[in-house]
Structures are given as structure tokens and as C-alpha cells.
Amino acid sequence: MCCRMTWKAMAGALLLTLSLILLGWGAEGQENGGDKKKVPGSSTVNLGQNTHDWRPLIHTTVNLSEIRSIKSSFEFRTFDPEGLIFYGDTKNGDDWFILSLKDGVPLMQINKGVLVSVAGNPRLNDGKWHTMEVSNQGNFVNLEVDGTGGLVVGIHSKQMEEVIYGKLRLALGGILISKEKMIVQFNPKMDGCVRKGNWLNLTSPWVAEADELQPCYENIQPGSYFPGTGFAIFNTSDFQIDGDHEVHIELWGDFSQMDGTLLSIKADGEELMFSVVADNNTKNFTFTSREEVFTMKNTFKRLQIKFLKDSLRVVKHEEESSADFSVSAGSNTGYLSAWRDGHLAIGGLLGENDDDVGSQFLTGCLEKIQVQGKDLDLDLARVKHVSVSSHSCPA
Fold it and tell me: What are phi and psi of 54, to 5 degrees?
């Protein structure tokens, strides 16, 4: 499915934005340089390594008079339904363009005197490499995916004859304007990869803000991957609890292949309330609830933890059977009371002083994480280490 729209009042401006910003990614500018690392425009770039929500991962600046081509292509792969891909602007940010994913489909946002947003099929967050090509055909700018039509914007205006001058700034994985200027707000974190870029047939490099670009895995599967170097932290207050009902967390995966802390929970100013740790050497799971410790073999593929008012229950599921145990809060603060004002860490053990340092980090792939029956998006964490992949694991 594609979308066809015509805005006569902004036609030339929109064409300039799309042709020179969307199609211009990868050109090298005279203002780039310094001592920062340079990377080829055709490099494989892991968008998930960006340590800042909105700051670009790589960027470039070019004179508009140097642009000779208005056709570009690249390959893109992700399981992530939402996040930023790239940005471009002219007039030092007065006119800008943003390409992102929202609900798994491409979203283009443009400002050239008038704010415009266009979104539509196909869905791209299926974990497959998709070839994306942008071209100008007469009065239309086309975004094609895998050789078929995606988004189509129709344009017709006398502003097409405007003289092109000034600088074009381009950025991958970040923007150079305030996010409040966008029509459609979204979470910029993108667990995705770009490769084989052919930008305007130019070969000049981009400037990278990171010292090294992290590689992308050759093959991926859905899930959240923890390489043993970091974790994700949520405020427990982010999860709604109605009355005195239970809180339940569910984890899926091949636990026999994991090592380290799957999750830990701690109320502010108190000792660690609960943790689950996998040992790949002994193939055991250790559950620690304050002073009590329980151990079981990690032969299961699904783990359910239920926090009740005065107790917690752990249930392991193995194909056609299940087993469980319960722990009472005793004289300690009730589990739900502690849950309402604390932190939930996925992939690591929370520090004793309510810090974000952590320890005993997880190595392995959690295929699915749910809290209160809803999938947990690690991109929404209060803190997430850059090494953690929120939506993909190496296959």
C-alpha cells in the first residue's frame, strides 16, 4: 500500500527537502573533519550502539552545490517497531527531514515552512534485510522497499525552480533540532542495522562520534540479548498496580544457555528484595528472596514470578508440566509495598546503594519479557547499557 498526497503550497520546498535530504545521505562536507574517526558511507552501522537518545551516531555536512545525484539506496534490518533511522536539514535546521519507524512502518516528517508527516506500509520490523531506494520521478518522490512501491509523495509547484545553495547537514541515528518540533513524537532508540549504502554515488566518508562502530550480527532472532556487560533498569512505579492485586513477570528463553542475573528487584533504601541467577556451569537457577535461597535445575523454557501482597510465587513451565514454590514476606515489608517504590533490573544485580552500577550481568538471550501480561520494551528503560540489544539476539 502507498500514500499519494499533493500540497501545492509547499511543493518545491518539499521536493528540495526530500531530494536533497532523503536522497543525500552519505555525502561528505567540507566542515567535517578534525581528529574524529571517519567511516565509509557503505559501512554496516549498528544503530543500537548510540549512547544518547537524540545525538547523531555519525554525521556529515556538504555544500548543496556539490550534489549531482538524487537517487540513493541502502539495506535496513530490524525487529524493533520504533526508532530513528536518519535526519537531514538545510538553513542550519530551519528546514529538516526525519525518517523513522513507528509501529513497524516508515514514518517521514518534514518541515519546510509547513509541517508534514507521512506514514504507510510495508512493515519493516520482521528481522529481514530490506532494500530501500528513494528516487525522484517527475512530480513524485518515491520510497521503494524491495523493488515495490512504499510511500509516494506527489509534488507540483513553481518553487521547483528555486536556486539551491548553502549547506546540507545529514545525521544517522540522531537529529540536530529539538524533538519538540516534530509532529509525531516517538522513541528514538533503534535496535537495527544499515549496510551497503549508495549515497548519491559518492564515496566520501562520514564522521563517527563513537571511537568504534559496533558490528551487526550476521543472523538474528527476536528477543533481548545481554552480552554480559550491562543491564536495563526500570522504575517499578512505571508499572500500574490496581489495588492489592498481584504483579507478575514472565521470562521465556533457553535458560540452560544463560549465565548471570536474569532479574533483580529492590525497593529504595532497602536490601535486595528478590533476584534470579543462572549458572551455566552447574545448570542451576538460584532464587534469592531476602534471606531465603532456593535452587532448581534450569531445564525449563518459561519462568513466571508472581508478587502477592504478603508472598511471592515462582512457577517454572516445562512442556506439559509445571512446578512452583512460594515464599512469605514474614515480618518484612510486603512484596507489593516494596514493588510500588523501587527498581526492576533485567540482566543484572542491582547495587546496594540504589546506584546504576550493578554486577553479575547476564550473558544470553531472553526471547520474551512480559510484565503484567504486556511485552517489556527495553528501549523504555530508565537506564540501559549500550551493549544490550533490546529487540534482537544473535541466531
Answer: -120, -10
* C-alpha triplet 328, 333, 334: angle, nearest 5°: 55
Q: Which structural domain, as residue segments, surrounds residue 275? A: 224-394
What pLDDT is recorded for position 354?
A: 53
- Residue 165 is predicted with a pLDDT of 72
CA atoms 243, 248, 249, 252: torsion sign: negative
Q: 61 burial class (0-12, 13-18, 19+ CB within 10 angstroms)?
A: middle
Cα–Cα dist 158/68, whole Å: 21
In Å, how far are 81, 100, 149, 220, 263 from 126, measured between CA atoms?
Answer: 9, 15, 18, 10, 27
pLDDT of residue 110 exceeding 70, the answer is yes
Q: What is the CATH number of the domain that holds 134?
A: 2.60.120.200
239 and 165 in a single domain? The answer is no
Residue 7 falls within a domain, yes or no?
no
**How many other CB atoms sit within 10 Å of the CB of residue 97?**
25
Q: Rounded to an integer, what distance in angstroms lies between the CA atom of residue 261 and that of residue 209? A: 31
CB 98 within 8 A of CB 109: yes
**Residue 232 reports pLDDT greater than 70:** yes
- Which run of H or of E encompasses 144? strand 140-145
pLDDT tens digits, 374-383: 999 999 998 8
* Portion of the chain with pLDDT greater than 70, in percent: 79
Report the distance separating Cα 200 and Cα 64, nearest Å. 12
Q: Of 117, 89, 85, 87, whose CA–CA distance to 104 is shortest?
A: 85
